[in-house]
Amino acid sequence: MSNDSQTATLPAQEQKKKPGREHEMHPRPETAAKEYKPANKLKGKVAIVTGGDSGIGRAVSVAFAKEGADVAIVYLDEERDAAEAVQLIHDLGRRAISIRGDVGNSVFCSSLVDQVVRELGHIDILVNNAAEQHPKERIEDISNDQLLRTFQTNIFSMFYLARNALGHMKPGSSIINTTSVTAYAGSPMLLDYSATKGAIVSFTRSLALAVIDRGVRVNAVAPGPIWTPLIPSTFPAEKVEHFGSDTPMKRPGQPDEVAPCYVFLACSDSSYMSGQVLHPNGGKIING
Q1: Where are the domains positioned within the chain?
Q2: Is 272 part of the annotated catalytic residue set?
Q3: DSSP bridge pairs for 105
Q4: pLDDT over 70 percentage in the chain
Q5: Topology annotation, domain 40-278
Q6: Which of 21, 59, 119, 155 could form a disulfide with 31 if both were Cys (CB 3.0 to 4.6 A apart)?
Q7: Catalytic pick among 160, 193, 262, 272
């Protein structure tokens, strides 16, 4: 064990290519909980899920499909993962499309919204989930290119997609943004990533107020350490081995332990909530 003060929670591993590939992880993340009991909470709805090919995005997409929604999965270049996610949704009897592209590009975000409306008919739920991170030891190591890239993917994309999707969203629709525990607790090696996640909290609160008269609710989820491809593709193997061991639960969470938060915020069960953040983080107390 590389650090006697930590408990090993996963096999040591890393991936060289970013973003990571779910099919290369061991063990694979749990994204389709068999014990989940659907109740048609999203019957007839259409959802866009960015980063829907793997990890939290895949688990959310599958949970939405179980609840009766059709799903548009947006991904960068992970063809095999995206195909697996689409098949899982088809196996549940729902429609699914996958759209490849860079959500940090405003032109692409406009075109993907148009494609979803054209192919699936309407938009009821927008899940802004795609993100990237690049750990650095010192702030001096963060290049201008990395800083811009992280903000483009993690927060600019939410502006691009919301402003294009809102014109198609009727009262009762929902926008759900993925922030992070790092927005509240900080992270010394993820300065730019944490900064975007803090921006997402403020964006969520402000957009919620800006669109409340349209009948659209805007909320967020702030996961703690969750076992997704982002982890082995951005951290060294010795850090991955102990991932999540510093939480009160002493383990990382699985994507399907986070997905029910998104179902709750997407459906009418949360009809009196907007501008709020849910915290599936393994028991860490957050003032947020």
Answers
A1: 40-278
A2: no
A3: none
A4: 96
A5: Rossmann fold (3.40.50)
A6: 59
A7: 193
